[in-house]
Amino acid sequence: MKIEIYDTYEQMSAAAAGYTAQMLREKPDCRLGLTAGKTPVGMFAELVKLYRAGELSFKDAWLYNLEEACGLPAGAPGTCRSYFHEHLMDAAGIADERLVLPDGMNPDLAGECAKYEAVLCALPGGRLDVQILGIGADAHIGMNRPAPELSLDVSLKLSGDGAQYIAMGVGSILLARHILLIANGADKAQAVADMFSRELSTAVPATLLRLHPDVTVMLDSAAASRL
Ligand code: PGA
């Protein structure tokens, strides 16, 4: 795994945006696997700046996400769809249909999991071009929290506050051609250290990234403080 450490969150975010922009320039119809949450907000703001400066186009890109909330209409507040519209898509001229997510309103949620899995399997080459990840303080990746077993496929998962999501398994994450993990803040420092130093285990899900040959980890100095 390649590690890059930046003094500040802003610098880390700019570097992560630069990484993503480079992917898009090399492959304009890039299949980008995104992550929601607090960590990537700065990266999305930097991507919007590049778009507004005329240095980046998302015209042919396809966006995916690690998960979508169940029981909320598409685009309603609280959905990942609304998050991406707010933080990236509306400001970067990305049409709604370019974001591919499960339908959290499908009464057959197990069927919807299988459907999203099939969508991911049907990607060109059977994989995302890049998957961007945050990391949880418990070293979760996506919604794959420490557990005796983790599913490879899309499945129903619960967030920390008990909300239900349709979420990617570790299979689609590890299949992505490239992985970028970003983390900032002292509350992530132990998880980041564990990712590199603990035994490979589903008890520390981020250690599974060591199975992947092309992972870039971008950290601010606080998140890197226990390395
Ligand atoms: P956060 O979430 O960016 O909101 O800290 C990280 C994660 O759960 O992957």
Description:
There is one protein chain. The protein has about 230 residues and is α/β, with parallel strands linked by helices. Helix content is about 30%, strand content about 20%. It has six helices and ten strands. The chain has a seven-stranded parallel sheet. Strand 9 (about 180-185), helix 6 and strand 10 (about 215-220) form a beta-alpha-beta unit. The model has no long low-confidence stretch (mean pLDDT about 95). It binds 2-phosphoglycolic acid. 2-phosphoglycolic acid binds next to loops. 2-phosphoglycolic acid (PGA) binds near residues 35, 134, 135 and 140.
How large, in whole angstroms, is the Cα Rg?
A: 16 Å
Task: Summarize the amount of helix as a percent range.
Answer: 25-40%
* Main sheet properties: 7 strands, parallel
Beta-strand proportion:
15-25%
Query: What is the count of DSSP helices, taking H or I runs of 4+ residues?
Result: 6
- Encode the helix/strand succession as letters: EHEHEEHEHEEEHEHE
Structural class from helices and strands?
alpha/beta
Based on DSSP secondary structure assignment, what is the total number of beta strands?
Answer: 10
Major sheet strand order: 1-10-9-6-2-3-5
Mean pLDDT: 97
* Gross geometry: globular
Task: List segments where confidence is low: pLDDT < 50 over at least 5 consecutive residues.
Answer: none
Ions, cofactors and other bound molecules: 2-phosphoglycolic acid
> Kindly, what is the distance between the CA atoms of the first and last residues, rounded to a whole number of angstroms?
13 Å
